[in-house]
Amino acid sequence: MQFSSSLLAPHQLEARACILDGFKRRARLQVHMACGTGKTQLAQGVAAALDAQSIVIFLPSLALVSQTLQA
Questions:
Q1: Distance CA 50, CA 42 (A)
Q2: Is this structure's pTM higher than 0.85?
Q3: I need a labelling partner for 45 at 20 to 30 A (CA). Which of 9, 10, 19, 61 fits?
């Protein structure tokens, strides 16, 4: 699946830059953002920027699994 950073909103682009910078100093990070701010798309953007082969996303409910798969 191809991902275009043009799909990210300005706040997501800023967050992605901070996350990528954080990965230069640490191997693991947590991202805390409010509901509806595009965390799933942000994760896709970060994974694409890192050329990740796989990512792990932990979700607390099956309803969120369904929403994530649709995003």
A1: 12
A2: no
A3: 61
